[in-house]
Amino acid sequence: QLRASGGGLVQVGGSLRLSCAASGMIFSIANIGWYRQAPGKQQREFAAGFTSGGSTTYADSVKGRFTVSRDSAKNTVYLQMSSLKPEDTAVYYCNTFPVVRGDYWGQGTLVTVSS
Asked: Which end of the chain has the smaller Cβ count within 10 Å, N or C?
């Protein structure tokens, strides 16, 4: 249904691009969001999203540093992350927003920002 990939180890100030591959049906009708869960935290927080209508929305903590985009031909939503900080370290997931199905979470992809 939704699969996040592209995580890895990056230094402070570096960049990384994550990908979220979705089924064609989900991609065409749903808003797709990026969420993250920091180490030791139980809650996943919303980071950024791309609506089915083509607009974007960002959490204040990532605004100006992260950019979400969509490739309709590939049914993929991307999260370009720049100026990364240690506090961006987390497992990143994609899902619809609002979240309507828990089984869409998948395993996520780990981003580690080292100082």
From this structure: C
